[in-house]
User: Which sequence fits this backbone?
């Protein structure tokens, strides 16, 4: 639960979400997507849940999923702005996304070992995986034609 005074609204609607409402994400990424590209990522995802600070109207947390629409889903992004972390927002975003993905057989995500206890509390379990990362593509910026 959020502390009293902090009112967070959860939504899957992107209505009214502009790049200006998407500031401060991708903390620590060497080549982060811009807020405008972040909005493209949200629009391109099969499922999205946003946490919005009622006071400012800003997005303070988000989770996305991509799926094959039959049995498999993947959660590429979950992030809560540093100032808002530790208030249950990340857990609520995961719970809401898992409900949206209820019909799928596999729900996969990658995370650092230190975040595994966070996900285990929400019903996921550690597994092994393989990845490729093309850092030159991290910002999502396409070369000009
Ligand atoms: C992981 C993250 C989304 C959690 O959001 P949050 O709103 O702080 O989550 P909650 O308040 O619901 O839960 C916080 C709990 O997770 C734990 N936790 C979160 N990130 C952690 C980390 N990197 N290492 C260890 N514990 C972590 C906290 O210690 C806390 O535990 P507690 O309830 O026992 O104190 C947030 O820390 C974040 O955005 N981190 C940076 C991006 C990231 O790591 N995303 C996940 C990538 S898959």
Assistant:
């Amino acid at each position: 639960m959020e502390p009293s005074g902090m009112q967070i609204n959860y939504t899957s609607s992107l209505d009214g979400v502009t790049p200006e409402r998407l500031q401060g994400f991708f903390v620590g990424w060497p080549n982060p997507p811009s807020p405008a590209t972040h909005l493209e990522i949200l629009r391109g995802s099969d499922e999205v849940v946003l946490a919005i600070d009622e006071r400012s109207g800003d997005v303070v947390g988000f989770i996305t999923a991509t799926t094959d629409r039959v049995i498999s889903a993947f959660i590429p992004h979950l992030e809560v702005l540093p100032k808002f972390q530790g208030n249950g927002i990340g857990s609520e975003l995961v719970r809401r996304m898992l409900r949206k993905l209820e019909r799928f057989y596999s729900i996969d995500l990658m995370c650092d070992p230190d975040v595994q206890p966070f996900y285990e509390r929400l019903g996921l379990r550690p597994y092994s995986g393989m990845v490729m990362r093309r850092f030159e593509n991290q910002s999502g910026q396409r070369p000009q034609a």
The first strand starts at residue 8 and ends at 11. The helical segments are 35-44, 89-100, 116-121. The radius of gyration is 15 Å. Residues 78-80, 85-91, 109, 111, 114-115, 118 surround coenzyme A (CB under 6 Å).
